[in-house]
Amino acid sequence: KHILVVPGDGIGAEVTTVGKQVLEVIAQKFGHEFTYDEALIGHVAIEATGSPLPDETLEKMRAADAVLFGAVGHPKYDNDPSAKVRPEQGLLKMRKELGLYANLRPIKLFDELLEASSIKPEILRGADILFFRELTGDVYFGKRERLDEGNTAYDTMIYSKYEVERIVRKAFEAARTRGKKLCSVDKANVLESSRLWREVVQTLSPEYPDVTVEHQFIDAAAMLLIKDPKRFDVVVTGNLFGDILTDEASQIAGSMGMLASASVGDNTGVYEPIHGSAHDITGKGVANPLASVLSAALLLDISFGLKDEAQAVIDAVDSVLKVGFRTRDIADQNTPAEKILGTEAMG
Amino acid sequence: KHILVVPGDGIGAEVTTVGKQVLEVIAQKFGHEFTYDEALIGHVAIEATGSPLPDETLEKMRAADAVLFGAVGHPKYDNDPSAKVRPEQGLLKMRKELGLYANLRPIKLFDELLEASSIKPEILRGADILFFRELTGDVYFGKRERLDEGNTAYDTMIYSKYEVERIVRKAFEAARTRGKKLCSVDKANVLESSRLWREVVQTLSPEYPDVTVEHQFIDAAAMLLIKDPKRFDVVVTGNLFGDILTDEASQIAGSMGMLASASVGDNTGVYEPIHGSAHDITGKGVANPLASVLSAALLLDISFGLKDEAQAVIDAVDSVLKVGFRTRDIADQNTPAEKILGTEAMG
Ligand SMILES: CC(C)[C@H](C(=O)O)[C@@H](O)C(=O)O
Ligand SMILES: CC(C)[C@H](C(=O)O)[C@@H](O)C(=O)O
To answer: Where do the annotations place substrate binding (chains A, B) (predicted)?
Structure first.
């Protein structure tokens, strides 16, 4: 199996280094042979080649069996709304070109981290949510433009039925293997694209009679996720709403630094932390690498079908937490200083 | 002063009845004379007249000094994506026709409710956020349409600079009178309308040198709001992002049932709870009327400039909570059964 490592920007390099080490240990322990290559994306790719997603990177991605991805982004562009070339374009183009229409984000709290969250332990205990975020449509890919000499700007929130259908089917199928509950999130009381989304969910629902479906508006969902996370099992939603809800849901897992995601579609899968490039802590060696480690577990599970190997990684994370080790972001007032580790030591 | 009461749908009628009673008590106590009228909106207006915002209602709104508003919505339409006439159209048309471009949503926890939230008390204590949600633009009012024989649907997320400027100025001015911090929320790493939004904030910022500005992406903001609500003072954002963030922020105030909002613009102001029509509890007499009561306080303060009267209402809410009375939504496991009140008793 051939794995492409794409560190990207900021802490991406630090955390994927650890993710890759874990894959190496797994290969040795379980007698697999993984080969690796590296490629550029985002700000580092712009600096080196002028493009946020060089052709060479895209070709290497297509040729790989799976991609271990870091993060993209750089504050320089955030403060310059007029920049024409931006790191995020590389990420979005990758998603589109590789047909990565389904972004899976499992949200599950490790027992040891019950106290690391801002939410009360009794609200969190037992929460276990699997998000399906649509990843190649919506306002991320619709037409956008300036009008009226730059004084007006628009973006287009757009969905076609086949795009909704393929992600909703994946979500229904996953719900079958879990708690048999599917929550679809939209804003159908206002948006036409949401009404189309809801129609598709309603049309498919009879094919999955064993799965109970509910619809929530995005505003209510953002509230309920915090108020009562246990009510959710599988959640399916569009690209923008999924972006917002899954970041918010990171508080259920104690920290953004714990959350992995899998982006899958018709071909190569891409595995990445849901956190960003975090330039404020880049190079300090304090980033939590566990989201990248858990992304490696998803890679083993989903792209390679290696369930035992994936479980071994999750168990390793669990046991390191049980022994009391923490990175700064998941430490609480009871963590003794000597148990607070940097990125490398945690790896 | 002439006040129009527009109960709308579901629990709207129950809670505005209490809001109006409170206005009456204030009038008596402070020697004012308020006159009242009523009008229809939403589902009840559709049933009675065929239109979700009858012309008569709009005329009465224009003629009033302020509007005390309930809620709109009905499950019937939510499950029928193809309905052409919908209660929410009445709400959106009202906002547009009355030029209510600024929706103020103060989020402040009454000390007594520290335990009612799913968030830890130590995270909440001292949180005090004032949201400015833009209310007459964005994807709520852009062109929307079905294409391709109904198989594709789009909505248009659109902003012009003058629309952003007028709400951002209001937010800057409010920040001046408070903690002097303004957080602008957008998705400028992807959306052109967000880049325009950010440009306007950056352009205006030098005019308010005493206010510190930060920009957050909506996904990060949704996370930070839960992780560390105290970091926020004034938040300004677009219509859609504001809808999501303020519902989420209701958890900071313990319950949706506590949150009031003011929608203001060039003329008549509209005051309403941020909660919806809640048909699941309609007619049971259990709805929390305090959001409507606090909306009445905002009405007195903002539309009539009656600060002492507004404070008297807030103090009354505070003291009723101090005595231990709760509606069901803000009760916790320590609330004795005899202290749990219905809508009327709480009023
Ligand atoms: C960096 C940004 C464009 C991206 C997104 O919004 O999709 C990120 O927030 C994510 O969730 O992967
Ligand atoms: C009912 C709905 C259209 C409305 C909105 O999205 O604006 C509501 O959620 C609100 O926040 O007032």
So the answer is: 95, 105, 133, 219
